[in-house]
Amino acid sequence: MKEKLTQLELFFKSSSFDRGLRLGVGIIVPFAILYAVGYFEYAPAIVVGVLLNAPSDVPGSATRRVNAILISIVLTMLVTLLVLFAKPIFFILVLVIAAVSFMVSLIAVYGFRASLLSFSGLLSMVLAFAIQKETPLEIFIQVGLMGVGGLWYLAVSLIFQKLAPEKDQNQLLSDTLQALGTYLRLRTQLWAGNDQQEELLRESFFLQNQINDKQETLREILLTQRKRSGLSPYEEKQLLMLRASVNIFELIEAMHINNKVVHSIHAEHRNYLLPFKEVNYILGNHLIHLAELLIQKDKIPNKHVLLNALEKGNKTIASYIAEIGLPAAREGALTLKTIFDYQERLVAEIRVVRRIMANVKNTPGLSLKKKDSAYFLTNQEFGFKVLTQNLSFKSTLFRHAFRFSVALLFAYLLGYFLDIQNTYWILLTIVVIMRPSYGLTKTRSTDRIIGTLIGALFAIGVVVLTQNTIVYAVLAFVSLILAFSLIQRNYKFAAALITISIVFVYSLINPNAFEVIQYRVIDTVLGAIIAVVANYTIFPSWEADNFKQVLLNAFKTNNGYLLAMQKFYTDTATHKLAYNVARKEAFLAIGNLNASFQRLTQDPKSKQKNFQLLYEMVTLNQAILSAIAGIGNFVVNHKTTPASSELQRLFHRISSTLGIAYEILEQGSASKNVPTEALMDAEEKLLDKYVQLSNRRDEEISLGKTTMDTDTLHGLQEAYLISNHIIWLKSLSENLQKTTEHYVKTTVQE
């Protein structure tokens, strides 16, 4: 019960609910003022303007948010104007539906924010069917009032932003910490190597992409502001928390050490891994708790739970050595020590977050120069070239725009010739649920139908129990606010609330509420069926066909990350910025790859071409990222010896292999082969360094020097971790090349 109350508190304090309140204020104030002054008939048009332009109000830099809402206002006014003037002439209206739905859908080629503008434009087209205006003057007044509504909503949004400027950033940081904590616990479960491995991996793919998305939005908000006019002290703290979250993300990835090596060393002593798993769970839970406290503004819990967990892990290493004895225990102890070091760094980064949240004065400052901020921003191109590049059936978004316009036309003509009441409800369903991906459209269709049925049943219950119009009005208003708050979190529940809101709004106009509910359910089911069938039959976009480009980008950025890490290993001071930028690009590319794979799993089984090979390439790319992060993180936190010629040769071989895999995937064959020179000698020499240090340490022990100094320990760790990780990377890159060759051959044969 306590946990449910906590979740309820977090929801009401969230930025999602805050946006719902903005919508509520945007709706209720015009109604109240215009009713009071005797011009209530103008209120609906202003409210429509509020509803149409609210979707563009999403987290991001202030400039982009304002520009998006202003563009949305202009777009929705133009579309409404076109539809209202075309309505009296059937053939012209059909042409307008086809042209507007196609062109407005194509706006989505400019990215996520543009897709929300597209949604507002399409929504305005559908709602125009519900607007009954006859004369040009009435039409211009309607459209003008909608523009006023959009500007009014912009004003409300800016006021809310002024009153709580940190709300969106805090929510994004909270969501990021929440996802990181869950991700850490989930990645720890993967150590077990159980039958749920594949399911856990897929869940980790989703979380990884979610973390990337949150961090990218935070970069846009904070770094854009810092680049233009500098940050306030509070925003500086948020940027520090973002940096800590990026480091935590890398540490979690780096902790994905070669599980085969871990379990082979601890084959008979796996119980020594349990304390380290427990530490990860404690750290994960602590991150989740901090995420909640960031919204609740409550007191930070005592740090001793973290330190005690670490101490338990440290004692486990000593117990392991005592039971097995040296030198037999050395490799296992070094493996455990590596895990412990990652966890120690995790605790250090978590403590940074804690100090920022507690406003501790001696929190480390920013090391990123203001002029370097631009390197971490992902710029979206808005030129005409982007649009022309997508004017082809090769483009996923072009095919979506085409099938979307066909689906809308079919639905309108169906309603027109069958004289279906409120045909625009069918169109509205298509606009809301139809997406470029078949799997997502199908999922949203199911959620929409279930949500509509739940909402309809609730509405029936209220109608049976009461015939009070005041109750209808209150429920319509409250359910709309809650629906807007939940639409990104729980679409099924949001659909139920939207249905409740629409039913009661119409019930205020039409006394026969049961008739309204009946038509609402039927039209929603019809719209969902049309959307799913259109996605399946009209120039369908199967994720397997689009997967190649996402894979190529992952290959490329992983190779770039590897080369940046190689330079960073050689000179940490000179190449730190380049390493951090390459890390960011690689993490984003893997996140996009994982998101694409998630969409692939939602497609029909018959359309998941070479699913197992694609899955192998995804997991190999994920492992390569983790292995590179493991070496890079060690270099960041330890003073390393100069890279040997053997290490450089292996770096070069791995990079060449990744490059060849890229060529094979892109062109079907490689212009060059993997170098034929054997690298066994390089691997042996690399491992030999560890053997030499181990033998020297054995001699010290035989002479009675049981305590090991820090330099010797770090030297052993470096020799062991680097040699194992680089050999692991070489194996992973070779497996990736082989899998890619197999995939290309299989695809050609099909």
TrEMBL record:
Keywords assigned: Cell membrane, Membrane, Transmembrane, Transmembrane helix
What is its subcellular localisation? Cell membrane
Membrane topology per record: Multi-pass membrane protein
Family statement drawn from the similarity comment of this UniProt entry: Belongs to the YccS/YhfK family.
Annotated Integral membrane protein YccS N-terminal domain residues = 69-319
User: Which ranges does the record mark as transmembrane?
Assistant: 27-54, 66-84, 90-109, 139-160, 401-418, 448-464, 470-486, 493-509, 521-539
Identify the residues that the record assigns to the Integral membrane bound transporter domain, covering every copy: 411-533
- Which domain of life does the protein's organism represent? Bacteria
Record-given protein name: Uncharacterized membrane protein YccC
Pfam families tied to this protein: FUSC-like, FUSC_2
